[in-house]
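Task: sequence in, structure out. Protein: Cupin domain-containing protein.
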Amino acid sequence: MSFDFSDRGKNPVVENIEEWTKANENFRTTVWTGEKMQMTLMTIQPGDDIGLEVHEGIDQFLRIESGKGLCQMGPSEDKLDFEAEVADDFAIFVPANMWHNVTNTGEEPLKLYTLYAGPDHVPGTVHPTHEDAENDPNEQ
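Result:
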């Protein structure tokens, strides 16, 4: 099955979210950016992570479609006092202003999608690798 991975935000979209997520090979692919919400697909390689981050004023939802990992959250980047193992079909809810990270602890890519309420990335953002994401001036 072939998917359109362009950012089709502000247009109606219907996709099989599990197949869409599993088909994504990029670290991050922004596929829908609306006025108050954004969705990205992510593929985290074994041993890699999404990157310790905080979204000021933005709640976040992540859903694991395949793989396994470790979710960490806390009130500051040096106090991640919440930890939970995650795997297929798990949902992660990150409150606004909460530091968080998800690390792939398995041997296969960790495939997930995430919803930001509101948008967090520039519409159409694609980062083929974690390094690309870290070096993107729009992500600073």
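The mean pLDDT is 95.
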